[in-house]
Amino acid sequence: MWKIFKKNMTFPGLYLFFILVVLSAVGIFLGGKFSTPFAIISGMVLIIFVLSAVFINEQYEEKHKGYTFLGVFPVKNSEILAAKFLLPLTACLILTGFLVGMFSLTDIQAQDLVTVRSYLMFMASFALLFGGVLYIGIMALGYTKFMVIVLTFTTALGLVPMLILKFYRSSIGDFIAGFITWMQGLNWLLMAPLVLLMYAGLYWLAVQVKSARPV
């Protein structure tokens, strides 16, 4: 499992190091001042990085028939997917921990720090669970077929913000305020274990899918 994990972390590890350097450079440029746009973008970067790591590794696996190669060795599906699922989890822990620490060192107000921490945890949780769903889809259909579905879905999903702005423009402010209030009230001492339990459930399901239909 660890050999597979190390192989999967080769490119994402370098990419993660680059992202951490860039985020640090932006933080230094801001001179310790808190920036709301930077906090929002940081959450987006977290999601993009985690999902990109999954896509790039799985594209590589399909191109080089990695799963077929692993099938030659006495490696269980549970071990293969444990290494796969460990990648998003590791990325989320490192990047979220770094961002929370970085924003904690700015001149941010205590209440705003609670919001930012909760926002970053929420984005990390979304990235983690969505990454688990992606693995299940890839195990079921293969990378290429599943990517067609994902791209179609995300293209259609891109229309949602425009429709919301068109029909509910006057309510956007209230929605954002309500969402922020909701995030501030999240108890991550309870939510984090729940997210990890859900992620473990997705891992178990991915193992069952791969066992029923080897990729």
Short account of what is shown:
With about 220 residues, the protein is mainly α. About 85% of the residues lie in helices and about 0% in strands. It has helices at about 1-30, 35-65, 65-70, 75-105, 110-140, 145-155, 160-170, 170-185, 190-210.
Question: How would you characterize the overall build of this protein?
Answer:
The mean pLDDT is 83. Helix content is 86%, strand content 0%. The protein is mainly alpha-helical.
Share of helix, binned: over 70%
User: Which sheet architecture does the biggest sheet show?
Assistant: none
Low-pLDDT runs of 5+ residues are: none
Indicate the radius of gyration in whole angstroms: 19 Å
Order of helices and strands: HHHHHHHHH
% residues in beta strands: under 5%
Please tell me what the overall shape is: globular
Number of strands: 0
Category by helix and strand content: mainly alpha
Mean pLDDT: 83
**End-to-end C-alpha gap:** 18 Å
Instruction: Give the helix tally.
Output: 9
Descriptive key words:
86% helix; mainly alpha; 215 residues
